[in-house]
Amino acid sequence: MSFASKPLQTFLDELASVEPVPGGGSVAALSGAFAASLVAMVCRLTIGKKNYETVSDELQSILPRADALQRELRELVQADSDAYARVMDAYKLPRNTDTEQAARTRAVQDALKHASDVPLRVAERCADALALARIVAEKGNRNAASDAGVGAVMAEAGLRGAAFNVSINLGLIKDEAYVRAHRTRVAELIALADQSRSEILRIVEARM
Amino acid sequence: MSFASKPLQTFLDELASVEPVPGGGSVAALSGAFAASLVAMVCRLTIGKKNYETVSDELQSILPRADALQRELRELVQADSDAYARVMDAYKLPRNTDTEQAARTRAVQDALKHASDVPLRVAERCADALALARIVAEKGNRNAASDAGVGAVMAEAGLRGAAFNVSINLGLIKDEAYVRAHRTRVAELIALADQSRSEILRIVEARM
């Protein structure tokens, strides 16, 4: 049963349980999905409304992007847990012979790369959600300014949470070029998100 | 049907819809509930484990507090939406006579106070979750350091999101002493959470 079809309560209880999935990586993706949903809501509360005629076209063009981001981030909730399970499975492979040992090492390394690629995608999509949150914070319905603000903090939290999950896997990956490229990209995304969140919070506070 | 019993997907779709509830206030409470769940998970992944004998008692004492916080924040997801609906209902009261007008004003003011008390409670409980996240970030299982980190960012995002929802209602409340007291408390909580999040992120990065 996919996470998306489970009751919220079940998700929370499985999260709190001793089972390693779902864990922080899935929560990060879900945080991004909440951000995208809030952006979509602010668009819908603005488009075609009195006093918002001049921004309606722009928000109308953002809406399908927000809806698509929500879908992709929701799929990444599941993908992150699946990626973690694949790492665990790879560690369980036999290592009685040199051939088995080599195959296991390859499987573990491949699984670890996949388990850092997934949260990196989460972080990228959270950065996209943050960029849309800025537009709705600036131009959306003022009555929903706080919703745009919550969207921004959730997008940044999702990005930062995903970054932890990239980093924890990078620590175990032997491919140095891969590790270097991922670390650079994560650092860029964190720096951009930090600054963007601060700016959006100021915009929201001024419009409330 | 309460939010807790709805599938995640339904919650996300209702959030994105033009309906004002659930909105950012409920997402803030849910973010805090995720944080509390992650704290509980890190406790469960640490208690009784080899190399964590000296911290097991402390994490065992935190666990029921994290579970209780999760429950309370989950209830606040619903309470925030209910509080918003009460404000909307109060605005719909008749105002054909002076008596009706006075009764409506009182009902609106009472509903607005309730609609700022609920997110203030969310912010307070997120601050509690952040304090527990710090302990598990410092002392919990290192393999779950990233989960403690995600817990911290979700708790801070929940607090900050709740603060927006307090502020947006305070702007409409006439009781100046009430407004002043709430603004002071929100500012304190934001300042504490900002600093606490930075410190926890440094701890997590050092332990990953």
Percentage of residues assigned to helices of chain A: over 70%
For the record, the count of structural domains of chain A works out to 1
The CATH architecture classification of chain A is: Up-down Bundle
What is the H/E string of chain A?
Answer: HHHHHH
> What portion of residues of chain A belong to β-strands?
under 5%
- Shape label of chain A: elongated
Uncertain residue ranges of chain A: none
Number of helices of chain A: 6
Structural class of the helix and strand makeup of chain A?
mainly alpha
| Overall mean pLDDT of chain A | 96
CATH class of chain A: Mainly Alpha
What is the alpha-carbon Rg of chain A in Å? 19 Å
Biggest chain-to-chain interface with counts:
A-B, 58 and 58 residues
CATH topology annotation of chain A: Four Helix Bundle (Hemerythrin (Met), subunit A)
Number of strands of chain A: 0
- Which quaternary structure do these chains form? homodimer
Distance between the termini of chain A: 41 Å
Please identify which CATH superfamily of chain A we are dealing with. Answer: Formiminotetrahydrofolate cyclodeaminase monomer, up-and-down helical bundle
Largest sheet of chain A: none
Would you give an account of this structure?
The structure is a homodimer of 208-residue chains. Chain A is mainly alpha-helical and 208 residues long. Chain A has one domain (19-207): Formiminotetrahydrofolate cyclodeaminase monomer, up-and-down helical bundle (Four Helix Bundle (Hemerythrin (Met), subunit A)), CATH 1.20.120.680. In chain A, 81% of the residues lie in helices and 0% in strands. Chain A has helices at 8-16, 24-44, 53-91, 98-139, 145-170, 176-207. In chain A, α2 runs antiparallel to α5 (145-170). The interface between A and B is large, with 58 and 58 residues.
